[in-house]
Amino acid sequence: MEQNNAHKTDLCLLDGGNLSQVQHVVLVLSGKGGVGKSTLTTELALALRHVGKKVGILDVDLCGPSIPRMLNVGRPEVHQCDSGWVPVYTDAQKSLALMSIGFLLEDPDEAVIWRGPKKTALIGQFVSDVAWGELDILLVDTPPGTSDEHLAVLENLKKHKVDGAILVTTPQAVSTGDVRREITFCKKTGLRILGIVENMSGFVCPHCSECSNIFSKGGGEELAKLTESAYLGSVPLDPLLSRSIEEGKDFIQAFPDSATFSAINSIAQILLASLQKA
Prior knowledge:
With about 280 residues, the chain is an alpha/beta fold. It has helices at about 35-50, 65-70, 115-130, 150-155, 175-190, 220-225, 240-245, 250-255, 260-275; strands at about 20-30, 55-60, 80, 85, 90, 95-100, 135-140, 165-170, 195-205, 210, 230-235.
């Protein structure tokens, strides 16, 4: 994926607050780790970019910032302008912007051992001090659970419009049970639930492309019914997707005819329709 770190000063001269030209803000949440939340955030951003949207990703998973690697942007130097930090762009057209703590660590293997107040302060800076410019959608990738980071994001975004949250689960009962807590969190904080995505829903054979349910299936859809939430769709385990993520390649561009691409693209289209109705 081509990278362009030549940040121009025109972005720094935009009037208004740093989120004033962001049309929609969507949080991506999960009740537990390992459900593929960052993968889904990355693929949704790429799918939205491929239909002509300008997208940003704010990575507030402070202890596990994996999205820079997934987008193959390395560890570029983050520049500052009069409006704050300039995000890192993944393409020459500046259609996909990213900000992550991964860009601020001197050593990529460095552990972020911070107490709550320091995390809260950095998230406040991420929300207020990144010069995003014009964006159709800003996706906020959060850590697992319902902790300080989530509260800090909502607290700092309260003066801006937050459209809602996408909840990511896997089919197993353990995962859907954790997402129930996330749903409770959304209701208590007044955060609109845009829908639930079931990730790792079956396994796509790399030889015959048949999808087998190696875990279980339907947990996300059933959870959506029980909690009266929208069901956005399911994404299978696909070795081609996993390889693309590991290599920092654009899966959607490389495999546009795959069933997995179709699933991700469908979720992106449903999300866009939901945001337009908001």
